[in-house]
Structures
1.
Amino acid sequence: MPQLKSIGYVGLGIMGRPMSLNLLKAGYDVTVWNRTAARCHALGSEGAAIADSPADLARRKPEVICINVTDTPDVEQVLFGEQGIAPAASPGLIVVDHSTINPVATQDFARRLADRDVTLVDAPVSGGDVGAQKGTLSIMVGGPADAVERVRPMLEVVGSNVLHVGDAGMGQACKACNQVAVTCTLMGLCEALALAKQTGLDAHKMLDAISGGAAGSWQMSNLGPRIADGDFNPGFMIDLVLKDLNIVNETAAAKRLALAGTSEAERYFRIAAAHGHGKLGTQAMAKALEQVGGFEF
Ligand code: NAP
């Protein structure tokens, strides 16, 4: 089968804008739609066509439509809402969902799309805005192998690590695992920094001393120095990680699984958000330890 050429793109936020731009630069025919229409102009001036609605996008018969919106109800609306993709889709369409959403809902969406001969590939990403700009995202992919192989060249434009992890919903399940590991690691980092602070140990020296050993992690190397310097600007916002932890909680609860460390990390994030830090980066979890410990980093 020839390589696919035409892509529709829904959602031009922090992630969707640079990812769709990279597809355009790689030579794909890209048509975009964004709820706030003004966000389409930048892509339009780079050569993308602009649709009036998700349904209009689907009626233009692209081979693939990528979705990159916020949460589970948003994906449902874009797919099955009044002006949604599904009612207007042609048989054979592949929908690639890059949003981070609930794995069980994803399986339901896949079944409902399959009734219309449309295939859903769930492809949530990790690597943040910088990875989206550089095309170096990690992409956790769920869905039927033939559809995944068909979209792989396109995924390899936006990501450098594309891994097919299972059937529909398993990409989202993998992303939930990623968020569990990331938030628990970040909590360990923040607690180590709190202990250093309270014992009078220089934070940078402590990080230098331990990051090359068994305690080392991406969180420690990238976010540790920022916390020590009081830099809480987002890469990935606390409000969004709370959305992801909601997905983790729903998924774990459905399997009667208690995730004690994740719950504690979530508690810190909620304290930070309650103090007005929801739009700061996840490293602002450290601000919750300030509140709890009565000190300042
Ligand atoms: P964002 O900048 O807030 O953009 C969200 C996009 O979704 C916007 O284009 C928004 O449209 C659209 N949208 C939201 N609800 C919608 C609805 N009901 N109908 C139609 N469009 C809707 O978010 P982002 O950072 O790009 O994140 C997108 C997804 O990637 C999320 O699931 C997030 O968890 C995930 N993710 C983000 C990062 C990161 O570092 N930012 C990393 C990994 C994964 P408007 O322009 O009209 O608001």
Note: DSSP finds 13 helices and nine strands in the chain.
2.
Amino acid sequence: MLRQSLLYLSTAGWARSMATQWSVARRVARRFVAGETMDEAIAVAKQLQEQNILSTLDYLGESVGSEEDTREVVDAYQKLIERIAAEKLKATVSVKPTHVGLDISEDLCLNNLRHILTTGKVQGVGVTLDMEGSAHTELTIQLYRTLRDEFDFLNAGTVIQAYLYRSEEDMQALSTEGSHIRLCKGAYLEPPTVAFPLKADVDANYVRLAKVYLQASPASYLCLATHDENMIRQTEQFLAMSQIPSDRYEYQMLYGIRPERQRELAKKHTMRVYVPFGTAWYPYFVRRLAERPANVWFIVKNMFA
Ligand code: FDA
């Protein structure tokens, strides 16, 4: 119930404008957001790299309303990629398709992504298309395939969400195509007609999808994005038992969540942390609260700190 209310609030414009003007919320959001500027995100990526942890940087924002606004986003991503290369960081970038125009037009989004991926290709930086709500799943997967196969962007990747019923079929197909996939549980409010409502079913599907994908083809790469100890344990067992080489997968977590575990995993596997930055932190932050309602108490405590 609390999860659903928070996920509703993550998309409510009135709640966004209230929260973003509230200094306590801004301060608390810093637990999950590297900062408002690129410099702050780069500083976090450097600190992570010193601990043998790679990063993927996300310039926060989604559902941009005009073509002009998407130009600023493309420009910001190109500068970010150039900075990653100049600083010799082992980092990729993550982009939400609606941040570069998917809600305006598919062609605009494709073109914008081509610009970002071209800079990425030149600088040797990977670009992952984040996955948003289920209304965008089909188009995002299509965009990924078009960019990878028609435009030859081997630096492109995308995300599959274990809570969607359709994901088993998607993972099976993607596993044989030499894909670069991040597997996560899924962070949006979805109806039971498209997504498993029960955590136990999502968890079982997560492990099933990881196995299906890793068994299919040695040409595909899997990013195991989860903080769930049970998912980590089960996938680690499978990787060891099936002797999956270490260059075919990595673990991923979000900035600010389980940092000690991130450092531990980095001793055994390739470990990457998702580092978001920018002023449009509100929906990202509220989705993090929804994942763990105990985080709401963290806010309440900070209100009186
Ligand atoms: P689950 O939510 O079951 O949590 C398991 C345990 O992890 C909790 O008991 C707690 O200990 C810890 N934990 C989880 N979330 C926490 C939080 N917010 N604060 C504190 N502790 C927490 N989603 C999506 O829809 N599209 C996307 O593109 C991405 N991209 C993405 C990238 C990366 C690198 C990660 C790690 C995650 C995503 N996600 C995402 C989010 C993902 O779908 C999911 O919502 C979260 O990872 C939470 O799911 P867990 O697998 O961690 O398990």
Note: The chain has one domain: 34-280.
